[in-house]
Sequence to fold (203 residues):
Amino acid sequence: MAYDVKLIGAKLRRWENYLDSFRLPQWDELPDIDLYMDQVVMLLQRYLNFLPQDEHGNAAITTSIINNYVRLKIMPPPVKKKYTRVHMAYLIMICSLKQSVNIPYIQKMLPLGLPEAEVRRIYEEYVKTHHDMCLAFVQLVRTAGDVVLHSPAAQSADVERLVYSSAIVSGFSKLLTEKMVHLEGETLDGQPESEVALKRKQR
Fold:
């Protein structure tokens, strides 16, 4: 693969600056009025403007994508074709997680039927974690891309190494996520947590 090192360096610095200041909206910043689909799409595209278009140039968030999430029961259905703050929270988490986590795992991470207070708690923790990981990722790129960012002798092979590094980290992160989601509800002795709790009560 051939890379323009100066172009890649400039893109990395731009991405670094963007992530340094990026924030997902806080719960209280989400609209507290019911929204129609076109308003939801417009807001999500603004909130998640880092999401890339697909290979055909289509937007990362569309009406059909949201309808599909509802159909697959990944998020609550709209109420009389309107979407609430809870819907927005689900969509922000789903759309950002979808970049690295498959839908069946997202369904386990974000179950339906939760009271609004619990959705708020999960969302607020997600926003904080998202920001923390943005900063951690910036530091990772600074370390892995040090040669590309700072060395005048950097070559295309150095960019290639950074591409591989990014892909490998992404793969390990995905594997770790899936392994931990599979362990939800399990205990060290291999019994489901609910069964362990039941045995304790019977003693």
Q: What stands out?
A: The chain has a mean pLDDT of 89.
